[in-house]
Write a structure and sequence with these properties.
mainly alpha, disordered N terminus, two-stranded antiparallel sheet, single chain, binds 3-hydroxybutanoyl-coenzyme A
């Protein structure tokens, strides 16, 4: 019995189809039935190869986004305007590192190694979120990233708490709780600046002007141009489409912008009574794909910083392994 679970259009599509074609029909039927009943798939359960590969792709891209996402803001830790802001920012950046760890661990339950996933990131083969390839030019960018980037991330990630793959959905519950704090601290930092001097207000407006459209693109290509959406939704990995999430984000953010007292940089942004949503202007998809394909303003800088951090941390990984080996030897000696 062949079901729609068999077709995953991606760059390894041919290979996946070949593997999928030999999936045992009775296992496939059981898997489909569990998905249809909104059940969870756990690492020890049988799953079609195409489902496994789709999860590895999405979870690893997500993990990479978290750790590369530490860089644009990490850049401001030493220049934070007060001890309070510095402490908040350090905590936030550490949280993002932690999210990467949960997500790499979730990916490892699918039989891939963290070292291979990191190699793919460092060699430029693996994708990570487009948003982290733009520069943080002023202090307001830290607030705007919290408000808009983390706000967009939450909108995308709350539905992932109901993802059909157990380890991913559970990791997302904790991630979302922390992202919610990130979003609030960003908004609060901007509110304080908007009560400040004209220069501070102008800094916030400049920052929002630069980040708004990039955040809308973060949700991914329009549904009609999204090769993975249909299958991801069928499998309960994705619960809400790229366009629907984008719209929800816009509808939620416009009133927040009004409270802040800033203008969102889109002359076409207006409430549509009939649709019950805000209409908005055209996203520059050419610019999005240029960035996703490695040629955005900061892609090269982000990757080289990440590779350097990884290489500089080699001694820590070596020391941790040596310590673990010593402990194991000691435990074995005591047991003997
Ligand atoms: N940046 C880079 N690549 C993107 C992208 C973006 N904003 N949006 C889509 N793409 C890529 C996809 O990964 C896919 O590439 P591939 O075929 O080489 O794997 C291609 O564009 C086509 O997109 P699809 O819509 O068909 O792909 P998906 O169905 O996988 O949907 C997604 C894309 C919505 C990003 C989905 O994968 C997803 O929900 N991922 C989990 C969440 C995530 O990764 N978020 C990233 C931000 S995390 C973050 O911001 C950290 C926080 O601390 C702020």
């Amino acid at each position: 019995m062949y079901t729609q679970s068999f077709s995953v259009p991606d760059d390894t599509g041919q290979k996946i189809k070949a593997v999928a074609a030999i999936e045992p029909p009775e296992l496939m039927a059981k898997f489909d039935a569990r998905i249809d009943a909104d059940g969870r798939i756990e690492p020890q359960d049988w799953m079609p190869e195409a489902y496994r590969k789709t999860l590895v792709r999405q979870i690893s891209q997500h993990a990479h986004s978290e750790i590369v996402g530490m860089l644009p803001e990490g850049n401001w830790i030493s220049r934070a305007p007060s001890l309070k802001r510095k402490a908040i920012l350090i905590a936030k950046v550490q949280d993002e590192g932690g999210h990467g760890q949960y997500l790499y661990s979730a990916a490892e339950t699918l039989g891939v190694s963290r070292a291979d996933l990191l190699d793919a990131l460092h060699s430029g083969k693996a994708k990570y979120s487009s948003i982290f390839n733009y520069p943080t030019l002023n202090w307001a960018d830290v607030g705007t990233i919290g408000w808009l980037v983390d706000g967009a991330a939450i909108m995308n990630q709350v539905p992932l708490c109901r993802c059909s793959y157990g380890p991913y959905s559970r990791a997302m519950i904790r991630v979302c709780k922390e992202e919610s704090f990130h979003q609030r601290q960003g908004y609060e930092a901007l509110l304080v600046m908007m009560r400040g001097t004209d220069e501070q207000k102008a800094m916030v407006q400049d920052s929002v002007n630069r980040w708004w459209w990039k955040c809308l693109a973060m949700f991914g290509p329009p549904d009609a141009d999204s090769p993975h959406s249909a299958q991801g939704m069928r499998w309960g990995i994705k619960r809400v489409s790229n366009d629907d999430l984008r719209q929800k984000f816009i509808d939620a953010t416009v009133p927040q912008a009004k409270v802040l007292g800033i203008t969102l940089p889109d002359p076409d942004l207006k409430w549509n009574e009939e649709r019950g949503h805000y209409d908005y202007g055209q996203i520059d998809w050419d610019e999005f794909w240029t960035t996703v394909n490695g040629n955005g303003p900061c892609n090269k800088e982000r990757l080289s910083t990440r590779v350097k951090a990884h290489n500089d941390g080699q001694w820590v990984r070596d020391a941790a392994l040596a310590h673990a080996r010593k402990q194991q030897q000691r435990a074995m000696k005591e047991a003997a």
